[in-house]
Structures are given as structure tokens and as C-alpha cells.
Design goal:
TatA/E, single chain, mainly alpha, transport, Single alpha-helices involved in coiled-coils or other helix-helix interfaces, translocation, flat
Length: 60
């Protein structure tokens, strides 16, 4: 809940500044690679959670 209130408290200009800082830190070429890795990690997490829920249903 605290994290959500912090995220909502950040205005649009703060998000722009955070985005620019990320671009400066990682560079424009590295960001797509980071997002691709993040996306594949999320996909693997979802697949693993679906597999776990199927295992639980089989045990019942």
C-alpha cells in the first residue's frame, strides 16, 4: 500500500525526469535489451504460476 501511494504521488514531470535519468544511465541501445529481458522474465513467471496452479488442482 505504501508503494502504491508513492507511485501515485509522483507527477508526470517526475516520471519524465526518471525516464531521462534511465536513458542517460543505460543508453538508448541498452534499454530495448533490458525491456526484452523484463518481458521474458514476466512471461516465465506467469507460466510457472500456471503450472503450479495446475499441480495443486491435480492433487485435489
Amino acid at each position: 500500500m505504501i508503494l502504491m501511494s508513492i507511485v501515485l504521488a509522483i507527477g508526470p514531470w517526475q516520471w519524465v525526469i526518471i525516464g531521462l535519468a534511465i536513458i542517460l544511465l543505460f543508453g538508448g541501445k541498452k534499454i530495448p535489451e533490458l525491456m526484452k529481458g523484463l518481458g521474458s522474465g514476466i512471461k516465465e513467471f506467469k507460466d510457472a504460476s500456471k503450472d503450479d496452479s495446475k499441480d495443486v488442482e491435480k492433487k485435489d
